[in-house]
Design a protein that fits this description.
Blueprint (H helix, E strand, L loop, with lengths): L18 E3 L47 H11 L3 H14 L4 H13 L3 H14 L4 H13 L3 H14 L4 H23 L6 H12 L1 H4 L2 E3 L3
Antiparallel strand pairs: 1-2
Helix pairs in contact: 1-2, 1-3, 2-3, 3-4, 4-5, 5-6, 6-7, 7-8
Amino acid sequence: MHFIGNSSPPLKALSGAFLLMLVTAAADAPSAHAQAMISPPDITSQVTPGQPPRTGLMPGRPMAPLVSPDITEARELLSQQKWSEAGILIESRLAKKPRDPQWRFLQGVLFAETGRRAEAISTFELLTEDFPELAESYNNLAALYVEQRELNRARLLLERAVQNRPDYALAHENLGDIFTQLAIQAYERAAKSNQPAPSVQLKLDYLLKTPAIRGARITTNR
């Protein structure tokens, strides 16, 4: 997924596929549920990571061969927005495997999807500490910080994600959207300064009038 907007970007709530849309010229635009469900990090496939397929907000990585049926079931429940059933399944598995990164990741997704932002942030932050090699956690955490309009913090997280997984196309795209959003903000400040160069408004207009930028969204993993 990706995102972009005009000034202060709001993050779209992660819902069928957490997606963050920064609507240009609408710093106070409400968050909306995203549209893609991403597979949880699979530590068994980190050696040969696959490129995350785009399916909406944040395309996820293809399901690894060793993903358990329970994980698949939980992902399907999240995709169908069956929050209660998904929560029961996730909690039951975490009770047996409290440190399992896949189930913790899905719990973070559930928190984000149901508007429990503080708990989602805490969950993904702990995952980055306990499993710093898992790039998906940085990506989803970045999406949550974008929602809070903390673009530079999100940028640092995405830079870490692509450092861990150079082929992580989704994180690269999200990072590009953040840089574009920062550029828009910089041009807007320049346009309001004393005697701005004519090129400033031209650059700003170009970015704001480009459909691919104006309607860009930030994508998250499930």
